[in-house]
Design brief:
Order of helices and strands: EEEEEEEEEEE
Structural class: mainly beta
Number of helices: 0
Largest sheet: 7 strands, mixed
Helix content: under 10%
Radius of gyration: 14 Å
Strand content: over 45%
Shape: globular
Distance between the termini: 40 Å
Length: 122
């Protein structure tokens, strides 16, 4: 139904910036929230933030507020994750996902991309 493809990962120096893209296809996304997650080696998957496709409202993990920004380009059916002031601890595989609201602060993410690797060197 929905296909998601992440891109934009790579190697970046600490303090630098990187923008990840998530291209969506397959159906309308007006009723979806688009989430970003990451998983570092040896750690559990971590929520980064999300954006509502229709309203553009965003919600971020407290630890990442001020450094990461999520946005949408409707014409390209693409959601972005702008990452600034990167730290080595940001090294992880980053995933995008499409979800629907099940509770005020909960989403059911039914569709996932394959992930893109981000490596932040010190």
């Amino acid at each position: 139904q929905v296909q998601l493809v992440e891109s934009g990962g790579g190697l970046v120096q600490a303090g630098g910036s990187l923008r990840l893209s998530c291209a969506a296809s397959g159906r309308t996304f007006s009723n979806y929230d688009m989430g970003w997650f990451r998983q570092a080696l040896g750690k559990e998957r971590e929520f980064v933030g999300r954006i509502n496709w229709s309203s553009g409202s965003t919600y971020y993990a407290d630890s990442l507020k001020g450094r990461f920004t999520i946005s949408i380009d409707n014409a390209k059916n693409t959601v972005y994750l702008q990452m600034n002031s990167l730290k080595p601890d940001d090294t992880a595989v980053y995933y995008c996902a499409a979800g629907v609201r099940v509770r005020d602060t909960q989403r059911r993410y039914d569709y996932w991309g394959q992930g893109t690797q981000v490596i932040v060197s010190s």
